[in-house]
Amino acid sequence: MRYPNREEDEECRPIKLRVRRNSVRFSATIIRNSNNFIRYEIDDARYMTSRMKSRIDVLASWYRSTYGQQLRILISYVDGNVPGGDSSLRSNSLHYEGRSARIRGITRSHLSAIARQAILSGFDWVYYANRDYCVVSVIPDVCQTDLDLLFLLDESGSVGSQNYQLAIQFMQSVVSFFDVEANRTRIGMIAFSTGARVEFLFGDYLTNQAVHTAIGRTRYSGGYTHTAYALYYATLSYLDRNLAISGARPVSAGVPRVVVLITDGRSNHYRVDDQAEQLRSHGVTVYSVGIANYDINELSLIASDPDVDHVFLLRSYTDAASFVQLLSGTTCDTPANLPPGNETDNEVEEDDFRYYQIECPAFTDTVIIEQIDIVGHCAVYVSVTIVNPGPLNPVAVTARNENPSVNRRRVTFTLGSIRIIYISIRGITAIRNRFRMVVWNMLFAEDVYSVTVPNGVLDGNSILDLNVMNANDANYYFNITEGNEDRKFRIGSNNGQIYLNEALNAQIQDFYNLTVVAYLRSNDCQRGRTYVEVYVSAANQHSPVFQSTSSVSVLETAVIGSSVVRVTATDADFGVNGEVRYSITGGNNGNAFAIDSVTGDISVAGALNHTLVPSYTLTLTATDQASNNPRTDITTQLINIEDVNQNPFFLTGCAITGLCRYTVSEAMSLNVVLNTISAGDPDTSSRGQLDFVLDPTNTPFSISSTGQISLVAVLDRETLDTYRLNLTVSDRGSPSLAIYTAITYTVTDVNDNAPILTIPSQVRISEGAFVGDGILQAAATDTDIGVNAQVTYTLHTGTSLFTIDSSTGAVTLAGSLDYETMTEHSIVISASNPDGLSSSRETSTVVVINENDNSPVFTMAQYIASIPEGSSSGTSVVTVQASDADTGALGQVQYSITRGNSNGNFAIDSTSGLITVNGIIDRETISEYTLVVRAQDGGNPARSDRSTVVITVTDINDNTPVFQRSVYAITVREDARVPSNLLTVLATDADEAGSQNSAITYSIESGNAGGIFSLTASTGELSLAQSLDFESVTSYSLNIAATDGGSLTGVTVVMVTVTNVNDEVPVLSSDQTISISENTTTPSEVATFTATGEIGEVLQFRLSGDQNGEFVINMNTGVVSLVQPVDYEERQEYTLTVTVSDGQFSSSSGLNIRVTDENDNAPVIEPAGPFTIPEQRPTNTFIGSVRASDRDSGTNGQFSFQIGQPITLFTLVPNGNSVVEIRTAAVLDREELVQMNQFLPPNSQVTITIEVTDNGSPSLTARLDVVIRLQDINDNDPILVNPVQEVSIPESSNIGSSITQLVATDEDIGVNAQVSFSLRGSSLFVIDSSTGTITLASSLDYETETQHMVMVTASNPDGRRSIEHTI
User: Fold this and answer.
1) What are φ and ψ of residue 1333, in 5° steps?
2) Average pLDDT value for the chain
């Protein structure tokens, strides 16, 4: 089963993005469901939208009342992968927005009923095709998207006053679903009948309450139904030229435009279809709401889409919620129409989207979209196939740019046959991200053109020809939109050729960046943009000039890269012509030096040697960077090379590496040269002579002045085998320089020491030792090393019982030992070197040890004994006995208990074997013990035997009967019948079962006054023997005894409570009136009600009268708590009813809660501006007014205005309590203010911030940026830039020849800055009124007249300002 019969994402709108947990969008759209009628399989199943929760709660309540069980939610909301890796969910499943859930009941058989009820509960999509669950989904909640919403209300006679009032209530209810603010949703209203009138426009009321009140003020008029008038007025509200008046926002703002027409659809006289189409063509979505006896055909004709999505039939004002849901499902994501080439600035929150669509049949194939981050970061997605593309539509997304590391994103793509583009801008950072976007056609071949213009040249030729690709330039209009503020350039509007209006001066500005826009004349939606970079090249008039140089010195040891000196040359030219580059052009033998071409820094580039080259004279050249005929200058630089004392150096290889290793025999003769270390010095003077020194000096070695090392003392390796020396070789310079190396001598060994033998004087070994067992280890040491230290061991003895290893000295057993035959043996050992040096002989005595070879034996394998429980400690139980055939210590026996001695209740005498009581003997705990005893002799290792002892414990009466409970409690109605069984008490006795000691008898000992109860002695059954009376006795406490055969008694208590019959109404505390602040935190306790009732009855409280659930009452304690915030501005008082009930009777009291005001609303400033004022108006001239309001009351709602930044040009003048006028504080001269960097062209505007601060504590402030534009007036005369006094011209010049050109400027702007030229005084010449070019109009004759004087006038178009100039 599927309801409706469409796909889930088609019915409920697919998502564009996985909502990140704890993001702004998550917090705004997702709530956590805590309904206890629902069982959540995982915690994430609790997360869902408000719309989803409301329907789930209804369905769960039905299931609980029908089946008495909890509805189960398997999955609702997840922000990553679906738990368990469920592959059946599509990647764009609505689960990722909390708008879908998998549900089931306690059994599978309930699923079909659940699916049917889900449809009745208001789910928008229900799918039941799986035996384990069904899927339910909803459309998104009421959207938070900003709207420009316009109501058109039919108040004609055919509607009737009753339906008119229904429509008023409907509109007021719809308004409550939106946030009405200047930057959120704006609402307007037009009423119509025979005519149409504007009740209020979008900017008139900017709070929900103000709009609600304004709707309520309208009055029913009757008359004809001229719907076309209303549609016409609505169209005017959305026209660009009327936006400043109507308060609607431009299409580029991305705010959906919505018209809600409330009518019976029975128009008179005028057609509605053409006017409706005109309204829809301005990007307006039209909804038709039918009232009274409506005509469905006309409603469908006017609506944007003639189906149930845009036609709504109104029956009750409570239908507003359903209508807003319909509105959210079709309008929230409606893309805004953006004209090509128009910029849009907008905002988008984190993980939310702004949607746009651009349609232009004249689009070329390639389109460019630019998106610029202003605040935060965004991502852009483009599609030519689907509306509102997003990251979860990878196939349908034509192009995207999600790069977070840039602030400007560019997307270029190719269109297909359909010339519609859909764009989505997504917010990335956790703020309200601000962005700018514009769409262009790729009309030009290059994004950027570059051109170089000569300095000071004006020849009238085009500097660049821009062409539209694959098209006729004449079909396009070209315009320079940016970079030409001083009007130095102009462009042919028909051909794209760029000209100079005046010669350019590179000394003033050498670079211009122009923005050129071209659009198709027949359809300006096809627009392209490119940039033109203009470089001004100056003439190369000056040569570089070196500053004077002086000689410098550098050490011959300077390393490569060392800085030597910097030379400097200057060039008076501008730009590249003044840039200097340096080079070495002579005197640099061996390329010893290098120069930095940019800085002029000279540095060492090769090895220097004072002896070979004591100085260098470098020739240096400075060259400018002119492209043609660069200029140069030449100078010289003297560099002297200073001589320095240079380090000596080693010639011997090992010394060069820093370590020489040698060997010498300890028998070496004295004064023999062992080795030679050779060294040299590059210096040739006396400072090149070398001295050799060994350190330390107190060694057997000496070194000569030539580096020869000799032995001067006897060596002994055994005393010291290694000598580590440090050799220093130093020259005789000042200061002296030295080199170092390490020398190591290793002394080699000769055999000059005999071994030294060590063995133990005595060893002991058991007579049971095996052949091969070790006896002792002989050890010999020799201070020699290597072969000289090798030792051979020899055994000298007259017996074959022992042998020795000649290499290791280990002596082992070679035969069997017998203690009885011989108790000890003597052995002799010697050690010697291979060359015959040997040690003296050493003797050791081997002592033989006797062994233990007999075990103890018990007289019995098992001993039997018994003992009464409770026997005292020390009581004898039984004696065990064992014997051992060995003598002495080996034959002595010790007894011990090894197992079975629980809790150590028995002890054994280790010598006699007597077992006695050592603990508490309790038969009820252990009735029989089986002990394991051990007899062990004194051998090592010892020998032993084991036996068992069985001890039986006999019973005594030592346990009191014990009841199962110490206290029994029962409740008996006072009308219980007699006799009746009430309770059976049961006691147990731990003594031996079946014996007299454990037999129990029951009896009532006390508390049974009047014999009300009876007790069976053998079974403990308690019965009612006489009638009960609650009014006489409400409870009984019976003491019951259980006695065993040995007269031991246990006791329990039976508490019997008698219950009464209910006949009293609960008494509730009186009415209460309280006050709470609207800032009271939730939850907070605000009031407490108390009640009394029938004894024993449970009272429960409930609260009524609070439809929105701001307050709740604890059903058990009567405590009333605030659980949702209250708002003084929305509601000032609550009248509630508290009811207490015992299930049969109830009573009620009133609770009146008054809400006190707090300063919780900042002032709201209505949008204002931009304002325009002509310059030169007197001080205190009115510019515009700003209106503000504050929802708070009293002092908190009072406020004041001020300008938010220091500015002396404007002042604020109050006009009542809520309006302030902006007036001039000085006379504004635009040209003077421009010089102070204010009111700069082309916009000639400034932005001031108006701050409104209320009188609350703490105060709250609102701010509004207001744009003030200063309108230019024609108050400046033109100025000639090149006032030519005289020109010469050959008399043979052709008619039409250019003679000269005058250039004029005007400090005014716009049309006031336009200058036209005129000429008088001679008919031989004419002047071009636009360019100022004077040309020859007739032939000249020098013989007739040699000079002519003309008067040229440069004037503004209105003729009010002009100058004259004579040539």
Assistant:
1) -85, 125
2) 86
Sign of the four-CA dihedral 996, 1000, 1004, 1006: positive
Closest CA to 439 of 331, 334, 337: 337
Residue 584 near residue 601, CB atoms below 8 Å: no
Higher per-residue pLDDT: 268 or 105: 105
Whole-number Å distance between alpha carbons of 1167 and 1186: 8
Q: What are phi and psi of 1273, to 5 degrees?
A: -120, 160
Of the candidates 1266, 1264, 1289, the one whose C-alpha atom is nearest the C-alpha of residue 1345 is 1289
Tokens of 310: 């845009």
Q: For tokens 């010089």, what's the residue? A: 1235
Angle at 463 between CA 459 and CA 465, to 5 degrees: 135
The enclosing H or E element of 230 equals: helix 227-238
Report residue 1302: phi and psi, to 5°: -100, 135
Tell me if 630 sits within 8 A of 540, measured CB to CB.
yes
Q: How far apart are CA 1367 and CA 1332, in angstroms?
A: 13
Q: How many CB atoms lie within 10 A of CB 578?
A: 18
Q: Which residues contact 308 (CB under 8 A, 6 or more apart)?
A: none
**Cα 879–Cα 885–Cα 889 angle in degrees, nearest 5:** 85
E strand intervals along 378-432: 378-383, 399-401, 408-414, 420-427
CA distances from 1347 to 1286, 1336, 1344 (A): 10, 14, 10
CB 497 within 8 A of CB 309: no
Cβ–Cβ < 8 Å for 1137, 1151: yes
Residues paired with residue 426 on neighbouring β-strands, in sequence order: 353, 379
Beta strand 353-359 pairing with 336-337:
parallel
Q: Are strands 738-748 and 659-665 parallel, antiparallel or unpaired?
A: parallel
CA 1343, CA 582: separation in Å to the nearest integer?
60
**Which amino acid, one-letter code, is at 321?**
A
Three-class SS state of 1209: coil
Side chain identity at residue 267, one-letter code: S
H helices of 564-681, where? Answer: 653-657
For 465-493, the pLDDT digits (tens) are 998 887 787 888 899 989 999 999 999 98
- Alpha carbon distance 1086, 1136 (integer Å): 13
Q: Pick from 607, 595, 598, 579: which is nearest to 637 by CA?
A: 595
Do the beta carbons of residue 858 and residue 880 sit within 8 Å? Answer: yes
Rg value, the chain, Cα = 57
**Bridge pairing between strands 1049-1059 and 967-973:** parallel
Angstrom distance (rounded) from CA 94 to CA 137: 8
1022: tokens are 């308690």
Q: Looking at 3-7, 32-36, 980-984, 1277-1281, which range is the least confident one?
A: 3-7
Taking residue 954's Cβ as centre, other Cβ atoms within 10 Å add up to 14
Three-state SS for 1047?
coil
- Compute φ and ψ for 87, nearest 5 degrees: -80, -5
**Local confidence band at 81 (pLDDT 50, 70, 90 cut-offs):** very low
Question: Is the distance from CB of 196 to CB of 233 less than 8 angstroms?
Answer: yes
Helical pair 161-175 and 320-331, crossing angle rounded to 10 deg: 60
Name the residue with higher pLDDT: 609 or 532.
Answer: 532
Q: Measured in whole angstroms, how far is the alpha carbon of residue 847 from the centre of its chain?
A: 85
pLDDT in tens, 1234-1261: 777 788 777 888 888 999 998 888 888 8
- Across the range 958-970, mean pLDDT stands at 89
Q: Looking at the DSSP assignment, which residues form a beta bridge with residue 48?
A: 31
Digit-coded pLDDT (tens) for 714-727: 999 888 999 999 99
Segment 115-128 shows an average pLDDT of: 86
Which token pair is 464? 């660049």
Which stretch of DSSP H or E encloses residue 60?
helix 50-67
